[in-house]
Amino acid sequence: MTTFLEPGAALLDIPDLPDRGRMYREIGARLRAAMKEKGVDALVLLGNGNVVYATGASWPLLDAGLSHVERPVAIVLSDDEHPHLYMPFREGSAWESELPADHVHGPLYLEFDEGVAHFAKVLADLVPAGATVAVDEMTGAMRNATGLFPGGPPSDAALVVGPAKLVKTSDQISCIRKACRITEEAVVEVQKSLVPGVRQIDLSAQFVRRAFELGATANMLEAIWQVMPNSKAEGTWTTTGDLALPLLTTERALAKGDVLWTDVSITYEGYCSDFGRTWVVGQEPTARQQDQYAKWREILGAVLRVIKAGATSGDLARAAIAANGGRKPWLPHFYLGHSIGTNAAEMPMIGTDLGQEFDDNFVFPAGMVLVLEPVIWEDGTGGYRSEEIVVITEDGFTPITDYPYAPYGAGI
Amino acid sequence: MSDEIVADGLALRTGRRARAMAQMEAFDLDVLVLGRQANVRYVTGAPQLWVAGTRPFAPICVVVRATGEIHLNSSWDEGMPEEIDHDHLYGLAWNPMTLIEVLKDIDGAATALRVGTDALSPTFGQLLPIAFPNAELVDGELAMRTARRIKTAEEVVALRGATRVAEAGLAAALSELSPGITEQSLTGAMLEAMAAGGVSTSATQDGAWVTSREHRWRQGPRDRLVADGDLVAFASGALADGYVGEVGRTVPVGDVSGADELFGRSNALWDKLIAACKPGAPASDLLAAYEVAGEPLPPMPVAHGLGLGFDPPVVSPDLPETSTEAHLDPGTVLAVTGYVWAQGVGAVYQRDAVLITNDGAEVLTTSPSFSGQSSVGIG
To answer: Do A354 and B53 touch (CB under 8 A)?
Structure first.
């Protein structure tokens, strides 16, 4: 089955599988160019997503509570074509990298004074005094150390890495698409098992197993199979008065007629997938439910018509609102869409509290990847939400997801 | 888990909160601003969405010492403890200034003199003074780490539960071990079983791997088929009710030449490691156990505290002084790791959860070791 996501331009030349070496070289060149543009001589990166981006290393991520201590750290120098990677050796740790051996080192323990004292020596050896340094996180021990950054307080590495991450290379897009393909293939079987009586957690179990069998590196998100309320008033209390999303998965058995909003994400080579569909348990959608889907498609279509390089987040938000009769077709605590890469949600987030001016000034470059997730709601229907991922091109877009909308859409 | 998302039990959350408050007092912190998921769960008792990996720092939770009030960044109240009412919830935001505006209005923010944060980004380092105009921003992670080091009785119960989930995952993966299966399938079986048992949140995703005969530490993609003669290692980690349970085992496939001797070495090391788990002993005794057993230290922590994530101590050859200064006080729960390797044979990896008690140690994990089952007397 094909979706209605007809590309607005010739299909991009995206390799079936990524060329890791080329991806590493192209990202390295882009990141160093961004450093030079911002006047940053050295980047110290602690965030998992930033380290994956800068070094190309990919490993099965730990839970958030574990990942602060046992985490890879990258030091990127603007005048060295290879970043330095300080990698913990978890037992059997599965990771790959294109780095030369003399740039791969043992772990840095930046949570501890002793580890930071060692880090200070490492940094002094690599980074000349007076160089400008940017970091993405300061641990307590880093903050307590004196003289760690002799060139003055470091600036925020997010201001360098964020803009560099915006445009994807064809190999990065290949990674995201492969992650999406693994996800979609795993979901096919999950959807088949969606019958009354199955528990939410059973869907999670089935998904994670199949995703790993198909080559996922890591599960990124606790799988969401949220049963939507009959009305906003009957739903979970929220600060906005609107719908809660995502609500956590439980052992709740699904019942005939339940409307599910789903959301799952895995990584392949460190790049994330993002999958979302609306399903109905054990029966066909009603005419009113089909109308919700039709409306959702209309909104997505309106957004896709304005997408191209040079368009802004503001353009997309306006198109979506106009297609929805003047109301925002997304939840107030979320967004109409976002980018994706080594983190499941990257800038730009469209239609948030960052404001109209921010959205109007955010101009899409070709090669940016966008996850679009409009939300439609009418009490009594369970609403409709799905996600599609497109790559921005000079003339329009290229889709990289093509999962069917069943049980919605029959006859449309 | 049940059909509903519920807050951590009253005794669990009040016991933890009392420990956190005591450390705010000891470290003279008027306010704690927390961004790390484990710290947020520790003080709030509210389950949160699991997302793998580190998160950038953001002010997710604010604790005011003078009033004991807790404010949490959540757009809904599902699973929220009753003491964190709607007035103490602030919604998700993408603009840091939205959060700063909320923090500014918290009772006690304007007058706070010392505000601890558990991490910091340069951006929030610049913005937080707007919310706390009279405060010095200091490290708050050490206070939280100190609070978390010793477990309350209720936390030990939760850790036992998490350990059982990890062991169920291990058993499921072991039951599928046979020549021809892929490493990825074994990992999938492990994660599937834990999820089916009610826990879809893993602490680790290392899963299963064929240990290397050529390298002490294998590095490489997980795409191999299991074959006769392999030593296959399993690392199972679950995050159940917020707590980390971990267990590790190694199993031979078919007849592995040299395995008996290697398991014997592993057992001998294991006895030394468990003997080092004595109340009041320096954590570095665990490093010394490798030396006493005549085994080279692995390039990773030989033990780390278990709790809502990595808790102190972290006993690593890279942190010799830290490990010497840390003591194994009763109420500490450790994941203790044994690792031995032989050229041409492979590795035997074992990890167990150990509770330090007043008069010794209790091994919380009960999964059989291969050598314990079939090679009695070795070592």
So the answer is: no
